[in-house]
Amino acid sequence: MAPVVARACRGLLDAEAVSSRRLAAGSRSVVYRVRLADGHRVVVKVYAATARRNALTEARVSTAAADFVAVPPVLAVGLVPSLGSTALITRDLGTVTLEQAVAEGRFPYRYALRRAVALLKGFHRIPAWSLPVPPRPFADHVASLARRCGSSTLLHIEPALECIASRISVRRPVWCHGDVHFGNIVISADGADHLVDFPHIWHGPPEFDLAQTLTMTNALAPDDLHAIKRHYGTPVDTGLVAALVVFHTLRCWVHSTPHPRDQQLWAARFRALAARHPELFRNPTRLTAGRTIR
Residue 215 to residues 208, 252, 266, 289: CA-CA distances in angstroms? Predict the structure, then answer.
């Protein structure tokens, strides 16, 4: 067991951890599933010393969201004694995700998409004043992507970026989760869906989240967009969604692992979008012909 897990449970919960398993690791955080001596199970997310604000923000988001959508209850958040890192501890709701349920054939894909949209709709009801997250313009997202792939690559989606810039300012902003996909939805023992993982929260148009969900679930057919629009209920700018899907797809490609399979998957999706929405690309013929852009 990682010493940081044992110290976090002892210092923040006054409980002894008897076993742990690492679930995920990022550049500045690691997530563990932990069994305590009293038999209870918790999830411990450990943040690097430089990411303490992220831990506190994620705890506040979870607390604020709990009035509008099911989330894992926060049990504790704070500094890990003697180590300088910060831990966020939540109740463990189990191992079954919506992604697993779809893969096992328990839920049809379109039904799972409807459940994901229902969570988004609830999350978007969080009041603007309830979270101490500084405003961030969409241009920051573009600049961050440019640092990873270069401005020359962004030129390929210049029409999409222009479309986003012209439409985004007239939409009512909401708190966006920023990464809703089937793997970030945990199904508890009573069958309820719970939204997890809040480091990417952003105050922007709801289409940002809807487009991200379409992108991450590969729901890119016209029928999928119509289904999301119908299930979300309130008016959706489908033109803005399409442009944001282009942006999110390029971002996923840029951030994907260097494994050839992942690179080919996102490249194929990007080229499929160029064929379906040529008006959102600078030179769609070059892309659909299979020429590389990176």
Answer: 11, 9, 10, 22
